[in-house]
User: Fold Alanine racemase from Fusobacterium necrogenes.
Amino acid sequence: MRAWLEIEMDNLIFNINKIREKVNNREIMAVVKANSYGFGAKETVRYLSEHGVKAFAVACLDEAMDLKEAGIENEILILGILFPEEIEVANENNIQITVGNWKQLEYIKKNTLKVGIHIKIDTGMGRLGFLPEEGERVIDYCLENAINIMGIYSHLSDADGFNKESDDYTETQIKKFQIFEKYKDRVKYLHILNSGGILRFNEKISGNIVRAGICMYGMIANYRVEDLKRVFCVKTKILSIRTVEDDSFISYGRKYVLHKGETFATIGMGYADGIKKEFSNKSYVIIEEEKCPIIGEICMDMCMVKIPESIKNKISLGTEVIVVRDDIIEEINIEHKCSWDILTGIGRRVYRVYKENGKPYLVTR
Ligand SMILES: *Cc1c(COP(=O)(O)O)cnc(C)c1O
Assistant:
């Protein structure tokens, strides 16, 4: 294999169990949109459901159908907004949908669809849903018209802001959502907590199920969570090693000069594999436990790293290179640092290697 993403499934389960403790044993809805953040939706969902996770959330109809076609029988909620033809498909396939406008409700009523819906309330995210003031009218409409409301939910926009203003904003969002607590006996699920909410606002009463995304992988925003375990590690191999005999330009555009006598290695991953262009001259890889800076522009299929003297004699062609890991994401200083963006950007050419007890049991691509 040229490049691969190792996923420690037992640590994923360890993290899920910790998350469950943190939210006082409320149910967990695992958010597995975008191919489960790049970790492979089918295998992640299969494994999680075998370990007691009952509900899953995806972004769109195709993602939900992929899970259905893979034989997943758990509850699935689509977080995006569907149009009439798509609502019909969700209805036929017992997939729960998000409702964020009156047109959807009127369509469901007119066609007497039994599709399970979750009413989306915008408490301050500024993306989808009804305003809280309108929410009660929406819910009454559903109850009067025998529309199958399974949930009411909202989304936090700044629960991982880590400052007082952000935290005040989050508390306001949670407070606005609390007016819907009165429906808790009429709908199955009330939910607002995402990873930031789960880890930082789990003391507040807010719903009976939580939507766990990035925290399953041991992170909150771009930070590692102390009592969670490492789940992922992206690796490749050294393709070439050279010590330069003169000052030499490295990569496209002649933007980096390696000095006479210094050593570089070329490794088998580029931006098409998910090493963001922005990492050029900013991030590092780990070889033989040493940090090696990425030098010069990252290419589509390869990039170059500087080899410190200390490991020069320990490496050879084929030596393993750690390219993306939680500690690297935490440490690098790039302008648009976003762990979700980095993880979902891991490319299709990168194999997914699922491990249990430290041993691979499945390799997919
Ligand atoms: C993506 C998403 C989540 C999960 O967010 P994390 O921060 O990764 O936990 C939860 N809810 C909604 C509506 C989302 O779009």
Remarks:
- Residues 9-22 form the longest helix (14 residues).
- The CA atoms of residues 81 and 98 lie 6 Å apart.
